[in-house]
Design goal:
192 residues; 11-stranded mixed sheet; 3-stranded mixed sheet; 16 strands
């Protein structure tokens, strides 16, 4: 949890440019009021920032707990993309997770489907503990635009551990079929 202390006197317009890694996660904002009559006690407010400025590919929720032998469910989400021709999504589970019962539900009917995109080669690679799929929008003027979930991944957490889901090898392509610079944000699943 980060605590952000802002100056008590003068107008507050914002805290300036912060690195995204320092803004993502749990935070506490503390404030007090100073008047001619004195100053108040400090008031604290806890909040969570789980947004990623785009263009980005991320897993939602970012961090959550699930009991052993229960189904864990998360979404692969595109954030603020423009001019996307297609992409390859690769989710790697570390440490190894039993993906024998995993389900990959790709979204062809809403966010991607409404824009004329097609899902390509969805695969659960249980042997290498990874889930992968591609998507393409050939012939779509301006490519894929906006934000939305493109897939849902379900798996059963078989042992007590902390699982990291990594997206670092994910690639989006622009209309010229060049790599797009994107942010990626994986996830953590805690199995107590």
């Amino acid at each position: 949890v980060q605590t952000c202390a802002l100056p008590i006197s003068g107008p507050i317009y914002g805290v300036g440019a912060l690195d995204e890694s320092s803004t993502f996660g749990s935070h506490t904002l503390e404030a007090r009021v100073r008047t001619l009559a004195g100053q108040s006690e400090i008031v604290s407010e806890d909040f969570v920032i789980d947004a990623v400025s785009g263009p980005a590919v991320r897993l939602m929720p970012h961090r959550f707990a699930v009991s052993r032998d229960q189904i864990a469910e998360m979404f692969v989400v595109l954030e603020e993309v423009t001019d996307v021709l297609g992409g390859n999504i690769l989710v790697v589970f570390e440490p190894a997770v039993d993906l024998q019962d995993a389900v990959l539900l790709v979204d062809g009917g809403s966010f991607l489907g409404q824009q004329g995109a097609e899902i390509l080669a969805p695969e659960i690679d249980a042997r290498n503990e990874r889930v992968k799929f591609g998507f393409a929008a050939p012939g779509v003027d301006g490519g894929i635009r906006g934000s939305g979930a493109i897939a849902k991944i379900r798996f059963i957490a078989r042992s007590e551990t902390e699982i990291t889901l990594d997206l670092s090898r994910t690639v989006l392509r622009d209309l010229a079929n060049d790599d797009l610079p994107i942010r990626v944000r994986g996830a953590e699943v805690i199995v107590p």
